[in-house]
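Section 3.1: Structural characterization of target chains.
Under the original work plan, the team committed to producing a structural model for every single-chain target entering the pipeline before any wet-lab resources were allocated. The record below documents one such target. The sequence was received from the expression subgroup and is listed exactly as submitted; it comprises 193 residues.
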Amino acid sequence: MQLTSGNSEKRPVVYVFFGLSGSGKSFLGRKWAEHNQLSYSNSDEVRKEIAGLESKTRQWVDYNAGIYGPEFTRKTYDALIVRAQHQVMSGKDCVIDATYTSSAERDLVIERLSSDAHVIFVLCRCGEEVVKRRFDIRANDLSAASDGRWVIYQEQKKRFDEPVQIKNAELIVIDTDENIDVLLDQLVAAIKE
């Protein structure tokens, strides 16, 4: 989907899927990218790539420590923006996926991308029982790149800056408790509004 600006030029769209660990953002973001044949960059995979690790290598460290510490997170989020910039400069829509718990991080995405692209943030949410169930499944999934778990979720929840709106970008909120076909339909409908 390419939106047009006031001067009728097509502007690429950067879809930013974000929310707490276990919210379904990566699942929905990846499916949205596949459905629309877009490039997809996931913070867990990019973080491990920067660290020289296989994406499936578990890094269960404390909150805000190791490769999940502030310095490494900065490198990861910068890399996500650079990847999106490459797609935008090629005139292509793309998806980036990370928790983006702070409004400052979301503002940085807008600052770096909105002059050349339309930025749509997709906040993914679900009930805590669903989150717990997803963490249980993930713990046994040897192919999962995410190291999110309940204790990390609890720390993120304390620090999450709830967006009411996001200046210079669109905000869509999706409850990910539904099946993927319903979620994709909801997302299409929300973007057309």
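The CA atoms of residues 76 and 124 lie 20 Å apart.
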